[in-house]
Amino acid sequence: MLKVESMTYLPPEQRPHLEHPLPPVGPPQQYYVPGSQDQGQYPGPQPPGMRRRRRHPQAQLERFTWMDLATVLTYFVVMMVGVVGLLAPLFVSPDVLRDNLDVAGFVLNFVSYVICVVMVVLSLKKELWKSFKTFLWYPWAKFPSVPGAWFVCIMLTAFLVSLFAASQGIGPKDITQSENQQAANSMMNAVAFFPMLLMVVVMGPLVEEYLFRHLLIGKLSGVLSRRLPRVARVLNPWVLMVIAAVAFCGLHFIGSGEVPTLITGTPYLLMGISFGTGYLLSGKSIGFSYSMHAFSNLMALIVGYALGTDLLGWGPVGA
Description:
- By secondary structure, this protein is an all-alpha fold.
- Strands 1-2 form a two-stranded antiparallel ribbon.
- The chain has helices at residues 66-81, 83-87, 94-99, 101-124, 126-131, 139-167, 179-190, 193-227, 229-234, 237-254, 262-281, 286-307; strands spanning 29-32, 41-44.
- α8 packs across α11 and α8 packs antiparallel against α12 (286-307).
């Protein structure tokens, strides 16, 4: 007969024959697992050899503030109504304004943007500086994507504008620009590079990204998901991105009363889609979309001053 000896219980640390000892007792750790349903994070002991990875930050934008309202009203009064231009004759002689229309237009726009930028910075507060931390996540992809997105949009703009022009029997030399772009080109001919750099690269993109990406996509999607979840299923962030791109395009034609066409509106629409896509993919980072916008305007400005011509209709936006 076989004799079975009684087995005694041994704690895990006294079991040298086990190849895979039991996991230590304690709070579960967070680690990255590709393809998991909760964005790559779920609780559990970290397996051997698996590197812990931090989650990509997502801006928590759930409500509008009174400062947002004040900033939007300021933009409407200063930029749309043109209160700075209405008050200009009180400080500058009308004859001087008439004799230097391009310079006067630049000065009025510059002062208007300074007022709007101050309001935007006060409204965003720490959110603006925090949003630039998005470049700490996947920097190998985000830094090249800024010029990369600009180049792709340039090529796509050239293709679509040429296609629309050919369908209408318009030759390459007969393609017209929007009145907004013509005004920007006139300013570049009358104003030095550095003042234009401050307005169309530093200030203009920040104001527009705040309005069309931060408010119209980021905060509006957060408010809808929290208060109107059924509406948020239809007006999800990607749908709001398209709406914001259309509004962004229309903004550059409101002042002149011009109706956008397929030729004149395509560059602005593609820019709005590009900046909005970057905003969402970066975790609703206004710092990332601002970098894309500023880089696009910078390249247009450099080409405009260096060659004396606009690059495929892709002029500086924000002037």
